[in-house]
Amino acid sequence: MGRPLLVVENLSAVITTGRGPLTAVDGVSLSLDRGEVLGIVGESGSGKSVLARTIMGLHCSDPRFALSGTVKLDGRDVLGLEPSQLRAMWGPEVGMVFQDPMTALNPVKRVGTHLVEAVRKHQQVTRRDAVGQALDLLDMVGIPDPRRRINQFPHQLSGGMRQRVVIAMALANRPKLLIADEPTTALDVTVQRQILDLLDRLRGELGMAVIMISHDLGVVAGRTDRVAVMYGGEIVETADARSLFDAPRHPYASALLAAIPSLKGAPHQRLAAIDGTPPDLVMPPSGCRFAARCDAVHDDCRVQPPQLIFDGTHGTACHYPVNPLISTASNTSGDT
Amino acid sequence: MASANTVQVRHQADAPSGGASGASAKSGAPVLSVSDLVVEFPLADGQVVHAVSGVSLDLADGETVGILGESGSGKSSAARALMQLPPPTAGSVKLQGKELTGRRGAALRTDRARMQMIFQDPISSLNPRRRVKDLVAQGPRTWGRKVSDDDIREVLEAVGLRPEVVWDRRPHELSGGQCQRVSIARALMLDPQVLICDEPVSALDVSVQAQILNLLEDAKKRYNLSVLFIAHDVAVVKNISDRVMVMYLGKVCEVVPSSKLVEEARHPYTQLLLASVPEMHSSSSGAGSGVGGSGPGASGVSDGQGSATSVGSVELPSPINPPSGCRFRTRCPLATDLCAAEAPMLRDLGDGHLLACHHADSRHAGSAGRGEG
After folding, report:
1. pLDDT score, position A1
2. Most buried of A114, A266, B65, B186, CB within 10 angstroms?
3. CB-CB neighbours of A336 under 10 Å
4. Does the residue A34 lie in any domain?
5. ipTM over 0.90
6. Best residue of B123, B207, B230 to probe chain A, by most A CBs closer than 10 Å
7. Confidence of residue A101 (pLDDT cuts 50, 70, 90)
8. B334 falls within a domain
9. Does a structural domain hold residue B344?
């Protein structure tokens, strides 16, 4: 397989705010193979969107952001690129799908204009060829009657159709990596399912890697190869999707799963809510950032920040993990 | 057209609603009784948006009814019409036997006072300039009642806020979950009997969502509330409700006790909603496997989702020109000519289960049901 498509090492993003520097992303490392799907899950304020945008290079020239660490996409150091180099990268290398499809589209431009623009930005083709590609793209993302839709404006489309157009734009130059930031949060459940199915299918057809960001574990479950759970700007647990959902080890991951109402249980069951609020990242607590809300907290948790320790491919940043391994790392060669 | 499409959703079938007393504790009498509710919005070009077309519902004392549906199903329009915001086009809304429709001004405000509403966006539903202590006291003060600091403290504690912390804060200094708690506290200050919650947790994180759902259950017991809970999340609605009413394009598809929602719900639209719930504990192995053996109705819907042809049929039709007959037929895997010709009536299947579908009975007969007609 060769080297991974994306390698993020010790990435931090510090934002200047009126109250002082806010560490939105704190020492995150991850890697992604070609064609792999990574889910990033966390509450609002956990730093998942800032992480995604930093990987995209969207914060490179923003004076409010102080970035450190490295982001290597296909061997290139994203954080060191000039704006023109970044623009050349957005499209053929990495594409992004945002949460709100209405604000991602220009309301006074037709659907076709968006797509033709995206195609001709990176490819030396005639307008006619670009329109042909646009029609193919609309067909690929499952929009019926592309010839009619291509002349419509965004407001004439339903939310699900708009998100399909946004996906078509992101895929216009066949990126190696697609970053989808809450792609279905603004959509109905039935439409959400269609969009997730669509992303699944396109990933298979185009062989691209995907980073799917969501606050909803349900969206990420069953759609990803690996999942990283973020809390307070850090990755607190990462594992292949199945073992994370079946046997989460970090108390936060475990509590997040338990907080979701189940279709299987009887009505009026008390939900396992996580009390308290996420930490203030201007003044993060000194020990484990989840300590204040953790059921299994010990004294040393409040003092000693836990490191992300890997056992095979399953990494956990907790001194006292739930679902600990039956034996130690020596016995896990069969894993992965 | 409203009268032709009228449906009846009665839980405790024959308790006569209303009467002179209007006492809340009268067992059997519904606290809130809605019949043939119709909400229509005229457009500038003479067309009409049929938001709600003949919905009836009785909310029993202490009961929670969940209303489930996609955007555009009319669930929010129905809830607002109950509050007379704006008043419905037709139909009757009785709170403790008192008719609310047709009343105006002070008379309406007096009669409606014991029905309160909580909205989806907790931050924009609070006045940004006011402090928590005043936001919470605002309702009773509007009624000219004295509100003591102790009253405010008590209700803040009841919704899980620490009075000394939030007392002087304004909405922007609170998190979304805290704002929603303030909204609930505001509603509780007016001693409501009926609480209408319109997507109260949709804008919240999962962990906070669980806190608010637990809080609503606690408040319901402590303040003896009846709750109408609107949401699009099937699992959330199932968890909090006694009964679930499924709406599609302004009409009721099915009413089913939540304990039977997964196993016994039959309407193809309910099946579609159930099949759309993301599976938590199955990675990549057969999606839908855990949806309680949803049967051909569900699998028929999800099978075709990849292809472009079926995608066209899953768009919600316009409420300006709803499909004839059964409004779900354009997306329904079981639809036949009968569905286009005749709107299905809501039938009582017993045990509080009501269904409006021509073909859902034959669903268990597999493909035979689809070939019919």
Report:
1. 54
2. B65
3. 9
4. no
5. no
6. B207
7. confident
8. yes
9. yes
